[in-house]
Amino acid sequence: MEIRPILSALLRNKTGAILVALQVALSLAILANALHIVSERRQASSRPSGVADEHAVFSISVRNLSAGGPEQMLATQKREAEVIRAVPGVVSVANVNQIPLSQSGWNNSVAVDRKQVDETAPSSFYFSPDSLVKTWGLKLVEGRDFLPDEYIDVDANTEVYPRHVIITKALAEKMWPGVPATGKNMYFGTGEDAIEVRVVGVVERLQTQSGQVTPRGEYSSIAPMRIYGNYPGALYTVRAEAGQRERVIREVEAALRKASPTPVILESTTLDKYRKDRYRADMALSWMLVTVSVLLLLITASGIVGMASLWVTQRRKQIGVRRALGARKADILRYFITENFMITSAGVVGGILLGVALNQLLVSKLQMARLPLAYLVTGGVVFWLLGVIAVYGPAWRAASISPALATRSA
């Protein structure tokens, strides 16, 4: 079949063809980018935090209504940790200052050299007098865990700092790209007041309390210390035996209330809930984009079907004449499918260019990843198939009408 007659016919009635092509282009550009965003959000929400078997881990915040002085607070924290550790089903417990993905906690700036004007990177700052490597099941990829004599208790009213640190692999790569970090010195802060610490270990990953979707989301450091004396309470993270978490939570709360000589306020939160809360907005956005994408696809399909039906109906007389001159049903069908394929192809080409431009805008403004070509190619194939299917029914019905009836009814 020659393309020139079809192209000439489209140019004579180009308004409808341009509108359909434009609709396909806009739909393809929006659909590809929307699904790319959905994929990114879902991948981000399912990233490993670094904590092994998250379902077995929970935290419990303890606030004592009558805490006493700093030394009394320190004694209370040690006693509470022992009470929790004694509950059947508790595998490990650690006093900690913050929890991954909890959206609240401590940050610190880190630098390779104290003479730097600017920090090398921001870092989520975890500290604990207990082994977080053990309690959270962090995977060491370099060096070792802290030794017992490296843990220190720090009165909040003094200026004593730890001398050792464990950092994540992402932070190590940021500070010393391509070389081992263990044994190197780094600094919390910059300038003369910067605190020098030695890296003794590197863990594969530990997400920050904010869980950013950028590499910053795994810039974390762990210091072997406890700060006491500034708050009448403490936060503990607990690993329970598999399948025993809910029971252990209830028994830990009961044991702490029973062991405390004064009233306490307890709040337990599972790591699963922290993760769910952290990504609640991302998941809501994902579902909204999926809904919009489905509606957009339906609207575009309806537009193509409606326009194809209108064109076929308007050309019933032309179809009848061609049938009277010997054209077969297959010839009529091929004509309309080719015509719709050309219109859809123009829309797909425009959609690919528009989709790339839209993604470039999103990358520059929202720091998104670039749109993989597969999204545009798959979208283009979908719209090509949609164009063929949309015109097939109306064209086949028109081609099935006898030439006499077609020319008389037109």
From TrEMBL:
- Looking at the UniProt record for this protein, which Gene Ontology cellular component terms does it annotate, in alphabetical order? plasma membrane
Keyword annotations: Cell membrane, Membrane, Transmembrane, Transmembrane helix
A Pfam family that the UniProt record links to this protein: FtsX
How does it sit in the bilayer?
Answer: Multi-pass membrane protein
Superkingdom of this protein's organism: Bacteria
Segments spanning the bilayer are 285-312, 332-353, 373-392
Q: Which InterPro entries match?
A: ABC3_permease_C, Macrolide_Exporter_MacB
Transmembrane is among the record's keywords: yes
| Subcellular localization | Cell membrane
| Domain ABC3 transporter permease C-terminal span(s) in chain numbering | 291-403
Q: Name one GO molecular function term.
A: transmembrane transporter activity
PANTHER family to which the protein is assigned, alphabetical? ABC TRANSPORTER PERMEASE YTRF (PTHR30572:SF4), MEMBRANE COMPONENT OF TRANSPORTER-RELATED (PTHR30572)
Name the protein family.
Belongs to the ABC-4 integral membrane protein family.
Put simply, this protein is called FtsX-like permease family protein
Q: Which organism is it from?
A: Massilia litorea
